Amino acid sequence: MDWSQSLRLIAPEETLSIAGLILLLVAAWGGDKASRLISILTVAALVAAGIMVSPALCGATMGPDASAFFGQFHADAFASYAKVLIYISAAASLVIAPVFFERFNAMRAEYPILVLFAALGMGIMVSAGDLLTLYIGLEMNSLAAYVLAAFLRNDGRSAEAGLKYFVLGALASGILLFGMSLTYGFTGTTSFSGINAALAGGLSHGALFGIVFMLAGLAFKVSAVPFHMWTPDVYEGAPTPVTMFFATAPKVAAMGLMMRVLLDAFSDQAAAWQQIVLFLALASIVVGALGAIGQTNIKRLMAYSSINNVGFILVGLAVATPQGASAMLFYLAIYIAMSLGGFAVILMLKDEDGNYVEHIPSYAGLSRTRPGLALGLAMIMFSLAGIPPLFGFWGKFLVFKAAVDGGMIALAALGFAASVIGAFYYLKVVKIIYFDEPADVVKGESDIWHKLILVISCVVISPLGFFLTKWLGGLTDTAATALFHAL
Amino acid sequence: MIHVIAFYLFAVMTIGSGAITILSRNPVHSVLWLILAFFNAAGLMILVGAEFIAMLLVIVYVGAVAVLFLFVVMMLDIDFAELRAGFVKNFPFGMLIAVVLLAEMVLGIGAYKAGALQLGTPDGTAAQPLGTSNIEAIGALLYSRYLFLFEAAGIILLVAMIGAIVLTHRQRGDTRGQKISKQIARRPDEATVNVKPEVGKGVSL
């Protein structure tokens, strides 16, 4: 192994860590007054890291060229694609945060720094080539996330969300570690390539238990049913910018990690894990759709919506083909755009006194009082439901196409049927804002950054987004190829 | 011979002090016996040639965990008599769990000894080079092959520390903290005043 090559390949991670350490010093001396400056510098660091990873994505780096530290770290096109999505989400949740936290007098200099370290951890997760790298990245992300969930510590709901997330997350980490130790014990190695080689002769019972426990731990992190219980509570309780962060970046990271584990380390054992992923996918789609129907809080609704979407993304994983992986990555990009837009809208729904309105019936008749906002929300809801002229449809189309091409027609049919249930609650929101008598609650002024994010994501998910399909499809295909050639 | 004597000495002491840990009436004594048990376990580890784990036992368990226990025991006002009150009632249940655990261990070890478990063969990355102590071997791996992960683990600890401070540290208005710079910047002529009080009038400052 070449040290200089390894150090060059982890340049984005180095940039983020050094930026984090320096900004921590700025925070120590500048105090909370410097939090806006630190936010700006953090966004700059994320942009710089994003620029650093893009050559690997555009140049289709894969295989040994991208492998650093004895294969513990893969800085290939797949990792770069996921990192770009992660950095965009992290930057967006920094940009929208100051207005929200300043309202509660809680804008603190540590917020951008914790988001930065969480993004660093997620970057390590999607580059993992070893069980140790996987766990270190996951914990770095999770620890920062627990603190972020409880960031409004004087608010009971936020503290509750943080505690719940911490206790359940620690349990999931324990289950994941147990699975990893079984895998290590029965294969004799922690590296993905080593595990792959050791299992080439067949899967022993011990290693099978290892896969099952690891999948349970990872399913918790992507909040797939039946490990989804924490999601609505944490999403509702956490401060809205943090919820926006949770709904976007960690999904990409955990999904990328799951793809690495299943399609690299256990790629020859597809028969063993496919049925588990199939169940996770279908259960998430159905429970996510049914659970959302009774919700009256918009953040809880978005939580169930994210569970539902994770189910659709897992359909691509269940197929276990490069086409499925590519469809997943495409879906993730669209999902990020929809979620960022959705939470930007939620942050713009304020009453006269500037309080955030999360109760859905209060949005009645929004189209007459705030037509622009209502249009944005309606577009996002239609796109999440996957209704054709909008871009959300294309993501669902790609995963189902991958499922059909992979010979899983029954799965595609079931998923398609369940997506109709999902459309119900999205349309219910649209009905409330367009056809109900105005409740006249939402009146507050919106911040320019929130508008900007909403406009950008609406352009992406509008029919104009279809101009992106060729370019984005090329990138996801490259990334999926890199994933299958990582070892 | 000395090996065997040392083994039995450490083993008997470990089990004995472990038993007294549970049985002693005073919780502070329990913690002290626990520390003795840790020391003897460390001795056992040295006998099997794992001196790194022996040191970890002393540094981490005695140095940190046991001292933490001691603090908890001394600071929290726990009524230990009440804790023990359910002992007789829960005894059969506890025994049942112990028997189940024992049976599982016997079965597991039996299956392993009979060769029913096909454990993986180590891939050799962590093999100890000949002629080195295992502290050297671990250090050589940790600071070369696993350097990236080692440094990343350091960042995790930093994140944990930031988290603890974010969640618990607050500015309190009702305390009068020390302002060192102000103290040092004070000059004698600002700090003291010469007054000539008249008799029977008192002093106004």
TrEMBL record, chain A:
Main localization (coarse): membrane
Catalytic activity field: a quinone + NADH + 5 H(+)(in) = a quinol + NAD(+) + 4 H(+)(out)
EC code(s) of this entry: 7.1.1.-
Protein name, entry field: NADH-quinone oxidoreductase subunit N
Organism expressing this protein natively: Novosphingobium album (ex Hu et al. 2023)
Enzyme class, first EC level, given as a word: translocase
UniProt membrane topology term: Multi-pass membrane protein
Primary role: NDH-1 shuttles electrons from NADH, via FMN and iron-sulfur (Fe-S) centers, to quinones in the respiratory chain. The immediate electron acceptor for the enzyme in this species is believed to be ubiquinone. Couples the redox reaction to proton translocation (for every two electrons transferred, four hydrogen ions are translocated across the cytoplasmic membrane), and thus conserves the redox energy in a proton gradient.
NCBIfam families, A to Z: NDH_I_N (TIGR01770), PRK05777.1-3 (NF004440)
InterPro entries found in the cross-reference section: NADH-Q_OxRdtase_suN/2 (IPR010096), ND/Mrp_TM (IPR001750)
A Pfam family the protein falls into: Proton_antipo_M
Family: Belongs to the complex I subunit 2 family.
UniProtKB/TrEMBL annotation, chain B:
Keyword Zinc attached: no
Enzyme nomenclature, EC number: 7.1.1.-
Top-level class of the enzyme under EC nomenclature: translocase
Record localization: Cell membrane
Top-level lineage group: Bacteria
Catalytic activity as recorded in UniProt: a quinone + NADH + 5 H(+)(in) = a quinol + NAD(+) + 4 H(+)(out)
Membrane topology listed for this record: Multi-pass membrane protein
InterPro entries: NADH_UbQ/plastoQ_OxRdtase_su6, Nuo/plastoQ_OxRdtase_6_NuoJ
Keywords: Cell membrane, Membrane, NAD, Oxidoreductase, Quinone, Transmembrane, Transmembrane helix
Pfam families found in the cross-reference section: Oxidored_q3
Major location (coarse): membrane
Function comment: NDH-1 shuttles electrons from NADH, via FMN and iron-sulfur (Fe-S) centers, to quinones in the respiratory chain. Couples the redox reaction to proton translocation (for every two electrons transferred, four hydrogen ions are translocated across the cytoplasmic membrane), and thus conserves the redox energy in a proton gradient.
Xref: PANTHER family: NADH-UBIQUINONE OXIDOREDUCTASE CHAIN 6
Family statement: Belongs to the complex I subunit 6 family.
Stated name of the protein: NADH-quinone oxidoreductase subunit J
